[in-house]
Amino acid sequence: MLCMEQIRSEKESDQQRLVLAINPVTRHDFAQPEVDVDALKRYLSSALGVEVAVELRENYEETLAGMERREIDVARLGPYAFVLAQARFGARALANTIDIVSSSDSPTVPYRSVIVTRADSDIKSLVDVKGQAFGFVDRNSTTGYLVATFLLQQAGIDPGHDIQPVFLLSHSAVIEAVERGEVAAGAVMQSQYVHYSEQKEKPALALLSSSALLSRGPIAIRPNLPTQLERKLLSALLQIHQAAPDAARLLLAPTQRFTPASQREMTLKTIAELVGVSYATVSRAINGHGRIAPATMARILKLVEELGYRPNASARDLHRSRGDLVGLVIPDLSYPGLNGIVNGIQASLDQAQMQLVICPVQNMSSDSGAERQKAYFDLLYNNRVEGLLLTQWSAIQPETLELAQSGRPTTILEQELLAQGLRATIDWLEQQGCKHLFLVASTDSILEPSLTRSMFKQLTGPKGVSVDSSDDLISALSQLETKSRNLAGILCTSDQRALEIQGCLAKKDLHPIIISMGNSALARWANIPALAFDEFQLGQLAAQRLLKKLSIDGPETKQVLRTWIETGRDMRRS
Predict the structure, then answer these.
(1) Domain annotation for the chain: domains and CATH numbers
(2) Measured CA distances, 157 to 132, 151, 541, 546 (Å)
């Protein structure tokens, strides 16, 4: 008589073919997708010892239906599609993607939903899309539908009645439809928008809104996949980035790796992340507590019902406490304009009866500093911390990215400054007659360099050039005609860097206009024009955006961050 292990082994050996359905990562070059499909098939077939079929799909509904019918064994799913598969037919996560520390050549693009429109359209906020055609990916897409509908609801737009939904079945199709004017706006994952912007000399699209950071969806497997095959597949995925980089291109971005997925049941955290609120907000909705906007309450309860979530009694007890804290995660206490910013944040939080916790989490290289940093992050994981205000610098830390994926809504402190501040400085340089624009982004600036360079390129198109050093800047200026060199404008994101650049260029008898973004005593002493902004208002606007994501009713505001250029007593072409 055969033992059970022998019977199981023989049964598993019966499956001689595995079908993998994937949504290729956005940065993939689709000119010859069959090359990478063949590479992935060869690698997996060799590693698993069975024939492997790879199907490129961007319609999650077809993928889920195929998995349920056992026509598809494995699939790359978004977070929402996965929890639907989990609820509908018991799909399991096999491997998750993680972002590693990126290089400047291949920066990590956070996973979130963004809503875009044409830059030349009359639509300036989400409110303006009411009554218009709106592009979605499909109803099972996390970033291309679910999270975007919540962003619309936060703006007072009912996705079921106030817009004309158009389902285009892929992120790229949504981008193209918006660009052609076939829909007024559309929802896509951020990496698709970034990829589009990088391919265009002067992008035709503008960002309207973005969600908090989201956890990426897993590689999921259907129920009852043979255990031996499952183990071999996981082993192959964990090694693919090193063993077969060509095969990995359809599954991973250059800065990603696979890690084994932990098998966890659906939790409040899962629902909170999909809805775009904190898990404390979800808990209050489930338990019938107040202080939640009606539209948010309805959204949460609808998703709870759709996913079949049932909290157990002990979990319900753990989540009864109300969050009343907001964390401000900054590099250190020397952050520019901190006093005014904090006062503005707390002024908005006072209206919601919430308090601010300031956590300087960087520049702690000593042992005691590392302990303090850990203590700050432990504090931010506390249930009472309901939302996070991140600086652009803190947002790129691995620890902060992990914290932001805990289900708590986040917002970037300098969001208005990045767009409006850069626009103001560029406009000022053009008013001075500058025909060539250069950006020198510094590591000691309030603005993070990679985000600043991306926005600078979007605002200036081919006229703007980013340089990394004084030598690069001198070389670029030297290539201009002699009469054009003094018609160049240089934007430095810190006052110290602006003063250094000014001295280096003067030694080469180059005299372009220089402007900085620090507006410190140094800039005033050196008579360097500098961007100034209302620090109190910057904090106030950031807090109001976060309260809106927390679905806490507050005063409606249409404020625009007040910025101006401080030119000093003797501003001149120096």
Answers:
(1) 4-104+216-260 (3.40.190.10), 113-210 (3.40.190.10), 323-413+541-555 (3.40.50.2300), 417-533 (3.40.50.2300)
(2) 11, 9, 21, 18
